[in-house]
Design brief:
mainly alpha, MetI-like fold, elongated
Length: 277
Amino acid sequence: MSGRRIVGIALLALIFGTAFLGPFVAPHSPTEVLGAPYSSGMGILGLDGLGRDVFSRLLHGGATLVLSGLGVAIAAYLLAAPVGMFMALRGGRPEQGLTWLNDVLLAFPPILLLLLLATASGKGLMVVLVAVVIGNFPQVCRLTRAAASNVAQASFIDASRLRGENTVAIVRRDILPNVLPTLAADFGTRIASSIMLIAGATFLGLGETPPSSNWALMVSENRVGMPAQPLATLAPAVLIGLFIFGINLAGDRATSSVPGTSRLRAARTARTAKATS
């Protein structure tokens, strides 16, 4: 395991520990007022704009952001990857129609789509999550289709068709194991971009609302007090940055560490040789 991945895993352990174990060790409630706004002499990290303990709010506020970033990335792959593999396998008019729809979705930047959905449906975390999933869908679909296109032309795919296997079986047994390394390498980047979008939407007031202690909301709420109490803004911003940085480091060389990839490829090669002999 490379040093970069070790550092990434350590950062992720720190963030996950803060997000999920923090509420049990926080010294104060995230909504408890302890003193004057932006006091720097109280608590480990001082107080925020409403006199609440910044350290306690940090320990309470990470779970939603972390789970949201992971959830939307997983949802995007579960929805888009099968469509991309189907497009590569079937070809013809179905592929053309889905490619056209994919190109239409790609024409809308995710942040613009998010703003449109927020205008039409109102603010809220669920609206943000749906918008981020839709924004990731065409990118994941295009990546999967590109990775699966070469596989779909391989001889073992023809052998599977000659044996009478249906599309679902071919996708599951022949195409998915061969595109999995590419999807795994992209997964970390997809989580990072999703977290950035969710944090940006929350910063703009489209996601979670006060009195939530979401790290992105903490940055938005306390930015006006940076001259007096910079830690109230910098501390949550640093944690968000460390989470994204850790994901990118931990995902380094993911293509070579997907469990069972070599065995699955060898099995496909053996099946091809057997079918063509």
